[in-house]
Amino acid sequence: MKKRGSVTVFIALIFVCIAALICALLESARTSSARLYLQTAGDSAIDSLFSRYHRAMWDNYRIFAFESENDENIGDLMCEYMKPYVKNCGMYRIQNPVVSLNKKISLNDNGGMYLEQEIIDYMKLGTFESVFDGSPDKLWKDIEDANSMEKITSDYGLSSREAIDVEKALKRLSENIDAQEKIKLKMREALDNKNLGELKRLSDNLKKKLKKVPELVKKYEKKADKMSAKLREIEAKNSSNLDKLSESNKAYIEGEIEKFKDYVDKDSERRLEVEALSSQSESMVGELDNLESDIDSLQSTLDEASEDDEGDYSSEISDGWIRVSDDVYSLGEMKLSCKYGIADEDKEDKLKQLKEMISDGVFSLVIPSNRTVSNKSINTLSLPSNATTGGYTGRNLAERLLIDEYMGKYFADFTDDINTPLSYELEYILNGAGSDRANLESTVLKLLAIREGLNYMHIIRDQDKVQLATQLAAAISGALCLPQITFIVKFLIIAVWALVESAIDIKGLLSGGKVPIIKSSEDWHTDLDSIFDILSSKDLGNSDDFKRGISYEGYLKMFLYIEDPVKRNFRMMDIMQLDIGVNQKDFLIKDMVYGVDANISCGAKRLFSEISLFSKEFSGLSSGYSMEVRVEKIY
Fold it and tell me: What's the chain's average pLDDT?
């Protein structure tokens, strides 16, 4: 019997094809699973990498970031974390993974916005009480109004001193004229007593007084020119500040400025009379020369008469006395008929001294007696703020408030009195100087400017205080002065009063007290009579009664709210690097990694296409291939 195998061969061929198809499908599924396995291994590796967050950054500042000096270190660590996956890959047969970074994000990238994001994410988890009762932007409009007011009033306060100097120059001139009249009276007495020697001496004294008049006139002119130039300079300088004021404050200041202008106009009228005194003094000196010539002639006649007993000199002597008498009584009379002067120069000088003492030496006055200012300083060259980066994008109101509150919570200020590389950390973030003292001084000056403007606004809105200032101004200027000078002196009084109150406010804040942004009468600490005592005592008094309002930290947070965000962020990083660097000498913020984007590639061997029974059917495929996946993560 003849046997046929065609069916068997056909079935065998079908089996081979089906087996090849199944192996191809299995290899494809295995390859896809291997890629997923690699993705899982990569995700696990990057998670493990991010679990290496810097403990001190978290413990001290609640910031997540891991430390890495270079990109190779990141790749090596991720490869290390992938080893268990490679070792136990089984049928996926992955091998030799390689990590290449696409992007590494550090905390100091993009103007520190990633540091901000860490802060915001953390602060959202808790609750906080903002220093701002309402809208911080609205509050800052009020404070900027006060700041503009301080700049204007400070400048015009200086100008009021210029005007007072003009009045003093006129008073010196008036005193000279009064002295002339006294000498003339004595000359007439000497004439009545026929005392030629005394008459000549008095004439010489009068001539000296007259010769000083042109010099006094020039001094007055110099002071008046200086005042006019100063007013023009201040007006140009403060035009923008004037536009920033609220309508009520702007109306008040414009009214005060008009009084300054009115004073300048009145002074221009006085100037014509004053300038005429120079030529009059020259004329009167000529008259005194004639008088002295007649005195010398009469004295010669008298000497001759005493030597010549036989001669008759009575007629010549009589004529000589008549000429001398006519000379004395015909001397010109110098007058200053315009209104001028300051009645109480002593109190006015005290006002000026008080302003100078506080403006120039406020720092030493406001430091509490139980505290010593830190003398710590740092080298800023190696700090993050010397390598700021761009790309910053702004934050909304809520996020800005979160960052503001974070700074108050995790950075110290003067009232905390801590022992760190810089003791006044918030002050450093605000000012960026290299020493505690410099940062505190700058902060005090910022506080003084704000409080001075706010206190000035309080005074001009309180009619009782305005009345007190007006009464003191009237007493200082006197009844004989120009009415405009009383208003100018009042301007100076209010400026000095606001300045003294501001210095006392700052001392209260530095002592741990509170001061409200907008004061009421109950919050006021000074009166006009007592402020002059500070000159002798050099002491602003105790600072116990400061229990309502905003603390020193609160004022710092208000300043930081409007600080340039990039400067603020990098100064925060400066402090973090300094503080952590105490225990970790090589710590650098630039090594703090916030996010990683990387590609992981590896080799893999085929499995089902390498089965010996079917290897010939897949002979066109290589035994190995490569895979690549992408992993990324941020904190």
Answer: 87
